[in-house]
């Protein structure tokens, strides 16, 4: 009687292809990139920008453009995960609010397709790619040229915004899931947890006096 056939082992998880979408949020120019990862091999599928300069000053129109284009990219490339850069806390409040909305719309587009997302601080992204959290856009782009085969991009002026998004995707790949805590990163939840008095100030409400 022939010996029973043994089931073939499943392929190693780390060798299964994964597509990561990286996004560098912006209200005028939003960079995006998609990479395919198989083990240690990284292939750049595309990197480009969503250019909203021609849409005028109507912020709602720009947010809709971000949402629609994100869905187009998601449906075309079917990414497994979204990596997105966190807003930088050094800009003025109005710019930060607009940037946060742009980030939120990009995240909402991913979540509408059941795609999980991870947020990374700008310094974390730069450190992961170049080894320095204070690297310039040009230094990030130079390092990506050294480590990846970059397909040509239509307009050279868009290159740095697109490579910023590519660096976010690559940062996520380097983390390999170890991203529960982002070194040097901040989030609205963390900020409010560390500064509870700001919550009342931001909503115009005052804290009730403590009961005696």
Automatic annotation (TrEMBL):
Its EC number is 3.1.21.10. It is an enzyme of class 3 (hydrolase). Its main location: cytoplasm. Mg(2+) 2 binds at residue 85. It is found in: Cytoplasm. The active site is at 24, 85, 161. InterPro entries: RNaseH-like_sf (IPR012337), RNaseH_sf (IPR036397), X-over_junc_endoDNase_RuvC (IPR002176). It catalyses: Endonucleolytic cleavage at a junction such as a reciprocal single-stranded crossover between two homologous DNA duplexes (Holliday junction). Keywords: Cytoplasm, DNA damage, DNA recombination, DNA repair, DNA-binding, Endonuclease, Hydrolase, Magnesium, Metal-binding, Nuclease. The keyword Nuclease applies. Mg(2+) 1 binds at residues 24, 161. Binds 2 Mg(2+) ion per subunit. Its cofactor is Mg(2+). Homodimer which binds Holliday junction (HJ) DNA. The HJ becomes 2-fold symmetrical on binding to RuvC with unstacked arms; it has a different conformation from HJ DNA in complex with RuvA. In the full resolvosome a probable DNA-RuvA(4)-RuvB(12)-RuvC(2) complex forms which resolves the HJ. The RuvA-RuvB-RuvC complex processes Holliday junction (HJ) DNA during genetic recombination and DNA repair. Endonuclease that resolves HJ intermediates. Cleaves cruciform DNA by making single-stranded nicks across the HJ at symmetrical positions within the homologous arms, yielding a 5'-phosphate and a 3'-hydroxyl group; requires a central core of homology in the junction. The consensus cleavage sequence is 5'-(A/T)TT(C/G)-3'. Cleavage occurs on the 3'-side of the TT dinucleotide at the point of strand exchange. Belongs to the RuvC family. This is Crossover junction endodeoxyribonuclease RuvC. It comes from Hymenobacter antarcticus. The lineage of its organism: Bacteria, Pseudomonadati, Bacteroidota, Cytophagia, Cytophagales. The gene is ruvC.
